[in-house]
């Protein structure tokens, strides 16, 4: 019998995307994956027009049956204890992209990635940022060229209203996980608006 895939699933502060991400977490669990939620400080504490921090925490715990990793000390053992086969950041904000690209480890999520990468295991990024094609473009390019990072295919979500914004197709997270576990990047990375 094949052991379940162990997934660390991190959410950062693109709050408008949480409602698209939760069903993906539920799908992964329904497929037999062991999913452990990880929350950035903002995702763990800020109430927004998209819901309260307690509501999202509760829904993630209910969906996964696991407690949330929400601090640097609880994220640090991820690598040494080999807790996950793969780590997903969805949504991955421009702020998190920048920190990862420059090796800044000052948040729960960046510590989770640093610790996980010590074992040279895959990290999947599902980008969601309004400046992906401007201020965050260099960081996106850096990580596209870095070993062990895999991207969920993404598109301009509103090219005429937010011409520099990119959002990953969250429904393709499971497919991207499968490809990353095989050591390959799912293609195409850039999707046309409306393309599946």
Using brief descriptors, characterize the structure shown.
8-stranded mixed sheet, alpha/beta, Rossmann fold, 8 helices, 196 residues, 35% helix
Layout of secondary structure:
Blueprint: E1 6-11, H1 18-30, E2 34-39, H2 41-45, H3 53-64, H4 72-75, E3 86-92, H5 94-101, H6 108-117, E4 123-129, H7 137-144, E5 149-151, E6 154-155, E7 166-168, H8 173-181, E8 190-191
Parallel strand pairs: 1-2, 1-3, 3-4, 4-5, 6-8
Antiparallel strand pairs: 4-7, 6-7
Helix pairs in contact: 1-3, 5-7
Describe this structure in words.
With 196 residues, the chain is of the alpha/beta class. It has one domain: Rossmann fold (3-Layer(aba) Sandwich). 35% of the residues lie in helices and 18% in strands. Strands 1, 2, 3, 4, 5, 6, 7 and 8 form an eight-stranded mixed β-sheet that branches. Strand 4, helix 7 and strand 5 form a beta-alpha-beta unit. The chain is globular and about 45 Å long. The termini are far apart.
């Amino acid at each position: 019998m094949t052991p379940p895939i162990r997934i660390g699933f991190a959410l950062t502060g693109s709050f408008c995307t949480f409602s698209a991400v939760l069903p993906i977490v539920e799908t992964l669990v329904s497929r037999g994956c062991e999913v452990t939620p990880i929350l950035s400080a903002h995702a763990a504490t800020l109430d927004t027009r998209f819901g309260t921090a307690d509501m999202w925490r509760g829904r993630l715990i209910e969906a996964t049956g696991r407690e949330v990793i929400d601090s640097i000390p609880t994220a640090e053992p991820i690598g040494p204890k080999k807790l996950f086969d793969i780590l997903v950041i969805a949504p991955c904000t421009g702020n998190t992209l920048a920190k990862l690209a420059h090796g800044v480890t000052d948040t729960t999520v960046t510590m989770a990635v640093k610790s996980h990468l010590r074992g040279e295991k895959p990290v999947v990024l599902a980008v969601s940022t309004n400046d992906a094609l401007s201020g965050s473009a260099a960081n996106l390019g850096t990580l596209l060229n870095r070993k062990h990072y895999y991207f969920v295919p993404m598109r301009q979500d509103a090219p005429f209203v937010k011409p520099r914004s990119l959002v990953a197709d969250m429904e393709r997270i499971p497919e991207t996980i499968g490809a990353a576990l095989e050591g390959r990047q799912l293609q195409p990375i850039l999707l046309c608006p409306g393309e599946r």
